[in-house]
Structures are given as structure tokens and as C-alpha cells.
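Model it.
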Amino acid sequence: MEHRSARLTRDWRFPVVVLLPVILSLVGAAAGVLGFVLWSAQGVDAGALTRQTDLARHVIETELKRIPHDQESVTIWDDAIYNTKLAFNAAWIDTNLGTWMREYFGHDDVIVLDQDDQPIYAMSEGARADPGREAAALGDIRVLIANLRRLLTEGGADAYEKGNTPTAPNVAALRLVGGVPSLVSIAPIISDSGTIKQDPDTIFLHVSIVRLDVDYAQRLGEQYQIPDAGFDLYPDTSSGRDGLLPLTDSAGRFITFLQWTPVTPGRDLLMQTLPVIAGAFLIAGLVAALLVHQLWRKSHALEVGRADAEYRAAHDHLTGLPNRTTFEAILARTLAQRPSRDRRTSVLMLDLDRFKQVNDTLGHRAGDDLIQAVGQRLGEMLANGDTLARLGGDEFAIVHAHAPGLMAALGLSQRIVEAINKPFDIFGSEAFVGVSIGIATADLNEADAHELTRRADIALYEAKATGRNRAVVFEDSMNEFLQNRKTIEVELREALRRDDQLSVAFQPLFGRDGQIVGAEALARWVHPRLGQISPAHFIPVAEATGLISQLGAFVLRAACSMGAKWPGHTFAANISPVQLRDPTFTATVLDLLRTTGMQAQDLELEITEGILLEEASEATEALRLLRSTGIKIALDDFGTGYSSLNYLKRYPVDRIKIDRSFVSQLAPGSVSVAIVQAMVTLAHALKIEVTAEGVETHEQAEVLDALGCNIYQGFLFSAPVSPGNLEAVLRQPRSQVA
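Modeled.
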């Protein structure tokens, strides 16, 4: 082996001394140039997208003004009054008030209403239609009709005919008509000469409807130079059509998206620049290729013997430790030897705590170095005869021979926990991880390696579930615990199919003035046999089994239904990472807003820091799309994980919720006061509101008030209550609530 090592050192000296600096310089220069060009292109494209969004908003506003102007050409006309009100002439109406609007102005539907707001004529897509059949559409625009009638009653038509106002009264708005997003305009049929006097209550109305469909989008795109313009309830940005403008009605309810392919001058410039950059680095690339070729020749010349191949097959390539296959073989051989009366064999399953955060924060290379350092530190603690293996990822296993009893295995585990808790020096930075350990000891007659490993895995699961950074010895009751989880899963599936077990409670949210500003929706489960089941028991099971999407939709529906009844109040619901990774989640939320009528700005979705750390593209895209509609995003349990300023800058949120573990320790002079003050100051500097949860004492409330907290939640103010009790509180006068 020494000869092989010396040979490897000689063969790799040239690439390390010569090739590595060249490659690093080349890569550094290329990365710098490309980084600057990409940054510039992204900035230009971002500015262009902002201008295009403003243009799209202006286009919709212009179209809402154009339709009433189109109508004025036929509705302010003495002939229109004669042929509709004084002597009904269907052919004249069809030619002038119906098909004319379709053929010349592109209006899709026209309805003429009498003084009782009943349809006497209807046109749909250029053809005369049955007025009775078109009457169904009036239900969606009754409010607009009533608004115009009010304007007429107040003298709007008289003022126009007398020349006191420049425009005739009309009402135009975005609406869902028969479930189709549409531009709706209603205008009165009045005299152009002023010779025909009408009582305001008897004026006939002209209704024009322009559907936001494919043809209309194409016409807008051609007229206003909006590429690939379209209207879509569920926009798909995967094809590059990521220009989005959410359209809402006058009450703030979401209607649809105007979607288009943004003009990207920065990207176009980048594509023109890339060939130049490629040419500049071509010569350097050729040099690097020659060096790589030389390196390949030298590497290829190395003889890899049978011993090396066997070693790689049996050992982990990163740490050099035995891998899972070798570990299982060693354990099976050890158990087959049958322990003597004064010797026992235990299996220790180890899993690092917080390893993913270190990996995400410092990079995968740092994660690899950390795994190597952990393996080296563990190896220094083992006695002769023990075996340390890396099973994969951040999992390790130890076969430990010891005297009868658990003291030796527990003592080794405690030393491992203490050793791993010490900081690791990774690339000049200190990295902190912990370790959870599951222990299973073989009996005198135990010879099943698979069963012993399974027990150690169960004990490891228990160690992680009960706090991490500790060792747990397998007990038979842990098998029962897993069975209980299975029982909860089966019963939860049944509860989701029924409507008499699951419910939603609301814990009110209070502002600084003591007024209720909203509530958080919380799942509750009362089982007919098991009684009240804690969310701490069934929520993790739902997340692990995929039931959380169905359960979350149940809670979210209740929150939206309550929010529709009480606009202007914030109603929050917790969102699981599993839900956000579901590609249908965004559509589910938007459907609930539409079906319940809740305003998007009244809904708040609470996420955990774990979602930001995972950085899943579908999750971040879902958050971006939902937030663009006006839905608020809150970061729950703030302070318990890796609460990085970088995350708050990269993923904008509207609110942070300070975890109850900090609130419970608030008292004058407590270190938690300084921590919470820092959180509040950071949030307010980023224009983020702060909610404190778990407020249970007046002393905590006073400290939070002094620190500038915005919203309070906790048993001091109110426990979770039923929907009926919440509505009773919301109906009370503000003075009584305070």
C-alpha cells in the first residue's frame, strides 16, 4: 500500500501543481464575467417586466373605459328610445343595438332591460338569443344594475341631457358572468336631442359583456403589443409565460390572471454576448483540454488491482469506513459466534441532527468534509473489536462488544453525544451538529442481524421523536408505539371520509388596542372511541402518510368560509411542506377563494422555516404566485430554526410569528427580552409585522407591548373557540371586545 500511495502522489503532483491553478484561474475569470453579465441581464429584464405589468394594468383600465364609450354611439339616441320603449322593434334593435356591437366593437353579449330590469332582447356572439335564457347572467351583475339605477334616480341622466356633466352615467366593472371572467358595462338608453323626457325609473338599460377569452386576449395582444397574451385561472409559467397580472373585481375578489410572455431585452443581449465570451475563452479552454488529456493519460495508466476493487466495493468512498453491506455481514458473523456469558453485542444506529442545515448553509463540499470529520471522531472513540460503518447520508452504525448489561453501551453513547456536540472546523467556519442514537442489544440466543438492526432503528426513531441529541435503548413498548401510529393513520383516513369527527377551532388574534383582528384556524379531532386526539399526535401522522393535503384543505376551506363572512379580518391557516410541494395546491387555494367569496388579502398562510431551507422550486413558485394575488405569508415558529436574514430577503414574507418558547420566558431582565427585541427590530426594519404566540400572562403582554409587537395570540386573550363562538365575539361592539 505504501508503494501504491507513493505512486499516486507522483502521478497527481503535476495536475495539482500545474493544472489546478490554471483551471481555478480560468473558472474564476469565466465565473466573474458570466456572473456580471447575468446580473446585468436579470436587472434589465426585471425592469422591463415591471413596465410591462404597468402597461397590462393600464390596458385593462382603458378597456373598461372603452366599452361604455362604444355603447354611447347607440344608447344616446332618440331612435333607440322609439324602437325599444315606445314601439318595440326587434329587427331594428337587432341591427343597431345587437349585431352592430358585435361586428363593429367586438362585444360578445348584449342584453336590453326594461324599466323592471327584465330582459326584452338578447344577443350572444352576433346571433339573436332567447332573453329568458340570458336572464341567468343577470344574477352575476345585479349589483351593477342596482348601482346604475341609483345614479339615474339621483339625476345622472338629466344632468347629462342638460349639459351639466360631460359623460352619460354608466357602470363598468370586471365580473364573473356565468363563471366566465368578463368586462361588463351597463348604460342607459336616453335622448340625444333632449326632446324625449323620461322618468328615471322608466329608463331602459343596455348591457354589454366582453368575455376575457382567447379571441379577446389575441386582440389585446395585437393592439397593445403584449406577446402571447391570455387569460387563465391557473397560469402555467413553465413555458416562459411568467408575466402575470391578477385581476380582481371592485370588491377585491380574485377574477383571473392576465398572462403573457415578457419581453426580455437583457436575455436577448446575453444571447448575443455569449458567443463573444465563448470565443474569448476558447484558447484557454483548449489549453485546459490539453492538460486534462495529459491528466487522463496518467490516470488511465494507474493499475487498479483486484484488492482495490474489493476495497471500494466494501467501503464508503467518502470516509473509507465499511459500508452497509459490509456492516450487515460483520454483524451477521458476530451474532453467529454466539456471545459468551460475559460478553454481549449491541448495535448503535447513529443519525446526525441538523446536518441538512449545515449542508444547505455551507455547501455540499462542506457537508462531505463534515461527514469525514464525524467518521474520524467516532473512530477515535471505539475499542478494539468494535466496528464503525457509514450506512449512507448522515447515518452511521456501530457494532459494539461489551460486558453484560447496558452500562457500557450507554456510556459509549454518552461519550459520542458529547464528542459530536463539540464544534467542527469546516473551511474556517465552525459547524455544529448533534447526534441521535438508537441502541439494541442481542440476547444470548439472538442470531438475526436484520431483527437487531430493526430494533436499533426503532430506538433511533424514538430518540429523534423525543428531543434528538440523545441515546435511547430499544424497549418492546416502542413496537406498540409504532402500532399506535398505524392505528391513528387508519382512523384518520376514516375520519376524513366522514363529517362527524373532524372540526375546526379558531384562536382569535388581537391587536395592540385589544381589538380582535382575525383568527387562526386549527384542526380538532374527537374520536367516538379514543376521545379527543391531540394535533401533536395526528398532524405528524398526516404529514408522514400524505393525508395532510386532504386535512389541510379541510382546515383551509373552513378559514376561507369564515373569512368570506367577515371581510376585513385576517384568517390564518398552517401549511405543510407536503402541501406546498403538491402541484395542485395553488389551484386548490384559488378555487376556495372563488367558491367562498373570501378576499385574497384576508387570507394568511403560515409556513415554517423548514420550507425555506428545502428551497424546493415548486414550493417557492407556489408562494410567489399566491402572494401575487394578495394572500399574506407568515413565517411560523420564528427563532426555533435557522432564522437567517438572508431567507427573509430572498423569500419575502408579510409576518413572522415569535415562537411560544421565547414568549414563555419573557420577564424584565431576561435574556429572552433581548432576543425578542432583536426579532421585532429586524422584522420592522424589513416592514414585516410581528405576532407573538403563546401569550399567557399580563407580564408577557406588557413586555411584548413595550417591544412593539403588533399582534397577540394566546390563552391570556382567548383559547381556541368554535366557529359559532368566534362569530359571537366578532358581532360584539368594539368597546366590549376590548
